[in-house]
Amino acid sequence: MPGASDNSFSFPILIGDIGGTNARFALLLDAFAEPKQLPPIKTGDFETIEEALQKSILDKTSVQPRSAILAVAGPIKGDEIPLTNAGWVIRPKDMLTSLGLEDVLIINDFEAQALAVAAPAAEDLVQIGGGSVRPLTSRVVLGPGTGLGVGGLVFAQHTWFPVPGEGGHVDIGPRTERDFQIWPFLEPIEGRMAGEQILCGRGIMNLYRAVCAANGDEPVMKDPAEVTTSALSGNDAAAVETISLFSTYLGRVAGDMALIFMARGGVFLAGGISQKILPALQKPEFRAAFEDKAPHSALMKTIPTFAVIHPMAALSGLAAFARTPRDFGVATEGRRWRS
Ligand SMILES: Nc1ncnc2c1ncn2[C@@H]1O[C@H](COP(=O)(O)OP(=O)(O)OP(=O)(O)O)[C@@H](O)[C@H]1O
């Protein structure tokens, strides 16, 4: 391909983070310029990604990108990539021709979130509880949004390796007496409770309805924003309990992920919901559940947990990678298409 060696990309580079609900894009003109952020769009407003990119970006700028690096919610296999939780199917070969690109790389959205926490700016984080970052050690990102994304970041050979996975689908079980009252009313997926049945937008509703059912009440709230707003203002007991339990369960799963990766570099909460319920996550439940990992509670107290408050964290991770791909061990096999 003209102008690009195997592990670099020709500028201008279009970077994009395509979630189940929202898609965010930016243009990188060169390795030194700040990314030029474009207004976020709703995936549901466009039939295809080509239409979204053409109408919302390319028609509004004179810059013609030569490369695209996109992070998508879902596994990347083959030349057709259906987006988990959204209606689009990404066909990189079609993107090369219809958008006039030379190079397209597709990675997992939580790989991009992981890239963003290799060197996060202090002002983009809020620490929850104690512990401190041990430099150049593994990190984990968890993001409750449309689904529950999980990504690891491992440091070896002077390189940060993002580790994509489907960690949001681990089993989650009841522990306390109250959990055992609520659990029978939670809607399972094919007979089991996966983390993503609770720790995401629709999971908030699942949990809220189960709390109401356990209390013998009719649920009155219609969407996750209503539940979190009522919980934060403290004016509805079921909503308050829902978000308190949500914080506990998120702490449990975050602690499990920290143990798996030995994440002495920290656990980072990304995703739209973490920012929206930050005051609830700063209450004792999240951190207490995170540390409650006998026989490793002493270890857990040393591991810091953060909410990522950068509004476009995945894009900042993609920008860091696009500028200096050699610092990151991002696998491109089977995920890069060139004209
Ligand atoms: N105030 C709120 N409180 C809780 N949940 C909310 C709130 N507002 C929106 N949501 C839920 O957050 C989810 C969208 O999360 P996010 O903004 O992270 O989107 P996304 O990037 O498309 O998600 P993902 O990357 O997980 O696919 C939706 O399920 C939505 O119902």
UniProtKB/TrEMBL annotation:
One of the GO biological process terms: glycolytic process
Catalytic activity from the UniProt record: D-glucose + ATP = D-glucose 6-phosphate + ADP + H(+)
- List the EC numbers from the record: 2.7.1.2
Which keywords label this protein? Answer: ATP-binding, Cytoplasm, Glycolysis, Kinase, Nucleotide-binding, Transferase
Q: Which of the seven top EC classes does this enzyme belong to?
A: transferase
The family this protein is said to belong to: Belongs to the bacterial glucokinase family.
What is this protein identified as? Glucokinase
Naturally occurring in which organism (per UniProt) = Ensifer oleiphilus
